[in-house]
């Protein structure tokens, strides 16, 4: 029942379903510059009850309007015209994106009330650092950062709307298809401004299984058959990509990247302002999103620590928005999870423990991999660990600053360090596809830089005397970690980092030699 659901924490699937359904009842309107909010809402209400709305800035003011009933959208669409094709010819695709202009523009002095705009991006680090200095503890600093960076309710609604608008296209070909967000948009670890990863799904499997049992015949659709699932994926994405490119209002810079390990279509969705990546259903990626969702919901310290560590990594160039040999945000997040599993007592359970708690409906085997874990949060016993974030932040840097990366790998299933199965500098087991290393891309110099920065940060936090810091107006605590090191006191930094530079250079040369040797070996071996 709904009442029961509202008292306990919702499961990942319940949240997704609810938000997708919400998005179906939503429209996006580009508003006239001199906007009277009351008049707009009054007019829209003539088409049906408005359940929620907000305004945001994105090259002009836009309004997201969620109606109580889906039928209100049809009613509104009936009243909307097609743009006059004077200098442009239009593609007559009728979406849920509208432009409103005033028939009689009001004079300057008229009743214009400034509307409240919901921010869709986070403040720059410089501004954040100043804010952090006013907090009273590292723990409060970390919550300030979390509040500034995390996705807002409004931003999440916009993300689900972007998916829902793409779905209107895919339904033209595949009437049962759905387009759902995965990854950072839904796993509780997304920051304002992050891309929207969405996937196209064709299966409403539960619904069918029961109906198919009835009657004397085995019945199936005649469908086009292709030699591989990959080829089918590529063909479908190619056509949907062309569709968005040719007919999608506000879909620009459409790129089809069909030869990637996971084929995808990248595009920029101007009305919502999101950069989007569309791929075809990847059940394991959904499971990873759900696992992180569970960890993020279990204890408020989890997200606070992840956001702080990721911001720290970005400032010091340990992570990068372009793919390469850098540590990814996903890997960093997994490192934080592992660290929290290792605390005494543990702050979050291991994946094996979550699997123990799974019941029948939680059993999922995907492509031979067991991806079962409990979905009901109330079955997970809350932690007895009471460590503050002040302690945890310092301990995180301490732990990884001294981690034996040469010998050990990070395994979230067991929550223990296990011997590395192969020689990648950083080895983090993929929680579900047990034979994959999620940080395979990271090279030795990048790992060494991470270790050096972690040690430096642990040292800064240890030597700090907070009272003196706060009177000094120097950045302290987390703020002191978010300024590039070596700026404040280069000479001190040099002595602690002695030997690291030359080591990194040496290892870089070694890894080049190694790579050459490897490619030689491969060439010889062929």
From TrEMBL:
The lineage of its organism: Eukaryota, Metazoa, Chordata, Craniata, Vertebrata. Residues 11-79 form the RL domain. Residues 391-426 form the PAP-associated domain. Residues 138-296 form the Poly(A) RNA polymerase mitochondrial-like central palm domain. The keyword Signal does not apply. Keywords: Magnesium, Metal-binding, Transferase. It comes from Sagittarius serpentarius. InterPro entries: MTPAP-like_central, NT_sf, PAP_assoc, RL. This is PAPD1 protein. One of its GO terms (molecular function) is poly(A) RNA polymerase activity. It holds the Pfam family RL. GO terms for cellular component: mitochondrion. Its cofactor is Mg(2+); Mn(2+). It comes from the Eukaryota. The keyword Methyltransferase does not apply. One of its GO terms (biological process) is RNA 3'-end processing. SUPFAM superfamilies: Nucleotidyltransferase, PAP/OAS1 substrate-binding domain.
């Amino acid at each position: 029942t709904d009442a029961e659901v509202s008292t306990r924490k919702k499961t990942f699937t319940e949240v997704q379903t609810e938000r997708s359904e919400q998005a179906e009842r939503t429209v996006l309107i580009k508003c006239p510059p001199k906007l009277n909010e009351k008049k707009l809402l009054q007019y829209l209400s003539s088409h049906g009850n408005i359940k929620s709305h907000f305004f945001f800035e994105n090259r002009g003011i836009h309004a997201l309007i969620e109606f109580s009933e889906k039928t209100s959208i049809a009613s509104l669409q009936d009243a909307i015209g097609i743009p006059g094709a004077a200098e442009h010819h239009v593609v007559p695709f009728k979406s849920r994106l509208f432009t409103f202009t005033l028939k009689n523009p009001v004079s300057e002095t008229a009743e214009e009330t400034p509307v409240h705009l919901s921010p869709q991006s986070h403040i720059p680090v410089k501004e954040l650092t100043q804010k952090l200095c006013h907090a009273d503890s590292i723990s409060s600093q970390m919550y300030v950062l979390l509040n500034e960076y995390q996705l807002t309710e409004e931003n999440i609604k916009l993300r689900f709307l972007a998916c829902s608008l793409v779905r209107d296209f895919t339904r033209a070909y595949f009437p049962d298809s759905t387009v759902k967000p995965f990854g950072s948009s839904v796993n509780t670890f997304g920051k304002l401004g992050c891309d929207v990863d969405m996937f196209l799904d064709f299966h409403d499997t539960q619904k069918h299984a029961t109906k198919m049992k009835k009657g004397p015949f085995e019945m199936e659709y005649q469908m086009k058959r292709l030699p591989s699932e990959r080829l089918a994926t590529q063909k479908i994405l190619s056509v949907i990509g062309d569709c968005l490119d040719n007919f999608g209002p506000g879909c620009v810079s459409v790129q089809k990247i069909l030869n990637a390990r996971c084929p995808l279509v990248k595009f920029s969705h101007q009305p919502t302002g999101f950069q989007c990546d569309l791929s075809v259903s990847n059940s394991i990626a959904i499971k990873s999103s759900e696992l992180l969702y569970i960890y993020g919901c279990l204890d408020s310290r989890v997200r606070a620590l992840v956001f702080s560590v990721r911001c720290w990594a970005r400032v010091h160039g340990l992570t990068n928005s372009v793919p390469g040999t850098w540590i990814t945000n996903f890997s960093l997040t997994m490192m934080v999870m592992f660290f929290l599993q290792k605390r005494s007592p543990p702050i979050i359970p291991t994946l094996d423990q979550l699997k123990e708690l799974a019941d029948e409906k939680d059993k999922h085997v995907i492509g031979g991999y067991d991806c079962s874990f409990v979905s009901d949060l109330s079955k997970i016993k809350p932690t007895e660990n009471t460590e503050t974030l002040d302690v945890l932040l310092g301990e995180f840097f301490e732990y990884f600053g001294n981690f034996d990366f040469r010998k050990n790998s990070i395994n979230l299933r067991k929550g223990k360090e296990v011997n590395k199965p192969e020689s990648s500098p950083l080895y983090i087991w993929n929680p579900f596809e047990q034979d994959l290393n999620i940080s395979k891309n990271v090279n030795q110099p990048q790992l060494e830089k991470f270790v050096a920065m972690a040690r430096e940060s642990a040292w800064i936090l240890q030597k700090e005397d907070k009272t003196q810091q706060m009177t000094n107006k120097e950045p302290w605590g987390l703020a002191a970690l978010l300024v590039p090191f070596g700026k404040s006191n280069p000479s001190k930094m040099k002595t602690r980092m002695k030997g690291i530079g030359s080591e990194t250079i040496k290892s870089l040369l070694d890894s080049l030699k190694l790579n050459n040797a490897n490619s030689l070996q491969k060439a010889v071996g062929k």
